[in-house]
Amino acid sequence: MAESQEIHLKVPYYGPPIPPSQTPSRNCPKPPKCNFDAYSLLCTITKITTIFLITIGIIVLALWLIYQPQSIKIYAESAELSTFNISLVANESLLAYNLAVNFTFRNPNRKYSVYYERIEAQALYAGYRIGSIGYPPLRQGRKDSMPVMARFDGRTATEAAGTYNREKAEGFFYVRVKMYVTVRLKMIVIESVKFKPDVDCELRIPAPGNSTSLAAGFVRTECDVNNFS
Q: Which InterPro entries does the UniProt record give (predicted)?
């Protein structure tokens, strides 16, 4: 019986091919491909930067319109000529001068502090410059007043002898002080552009040695401040 089964198993098979059995396997999903596009990244960064700058610009403009800055105020509180005379030296008229002026710088703004990056003061008499001085950078707080002293001392050639003699007889000399100023305004962390206002002070100063004009004294004078904004 066993022999007949063995013979049966050796009989050839002529049917359709039987595919080999396969061991089931787990198909792991492939990781997504990372496509790095430098141009797209640059465009994204540019868009974000542009939106940020536009937003900041709108905020600054809105604050500027809401809190429109006021011009600084400058006053000459006192002025004194301890020396002011003309002498003739080698056929040349020389003006010896010693002028002291006490100014007050006033910041009327509640929201802005003021940074004076440059201050230069020039004294002129009869249209001629007789002296100039410079100052280091200054900072002024909100709603604040600060004193600024100007002293002009020296000797210079002049052609204003006629004006000098007339004003000396009248008892008052008219001296003009011009200031060239560069300022920035600051609110919190936002700084404004630079402003370069023109400051012009016409001073009527008692003549030295004239008791009448000295008794009248110097009158506090507000300077003209133009082109502030």
A: NDR1-like
Q: Which CATH architecture has domain 73-226?
A: Sandwich (2.60)
Phi (first) and psi of residue 45, to 5 degrees: -60, -40
CB-neighbour burial class of residue 226 (10 A; exposed 0-12, middle 13-18, buried 19+): exposed
Structural domain spans, the chain: 73-226
pLDDT digits (tens, 9 = 90+) for 166-224: 999 999 999 999 999 999 998 777 777 888 999 999 999 999 999 999 999 999 999 99
Q: Coil, strand or helix: which one is 71?
A: coil
Can you read off the two tokens belonging to residue 148? 């600024």
Encoded tokens for 128: 């001629």
Global confidence as pTM: 0.70
Separation of alpha carbons 66 and 190, rounded Å:
14
SS3 label, residue 58: helix
Q: Please tell me the distance from the alpha carbon of residue 100 to that of residue 80, in angstroms, as a whole number.
A: 5
Q: Tens digit of pLDDT for each residue in 116-138?
A: 999 999 999 999 999 999 999 99
Which residues 6+ apart lie within 8 Å of 127 measured at CB?
160
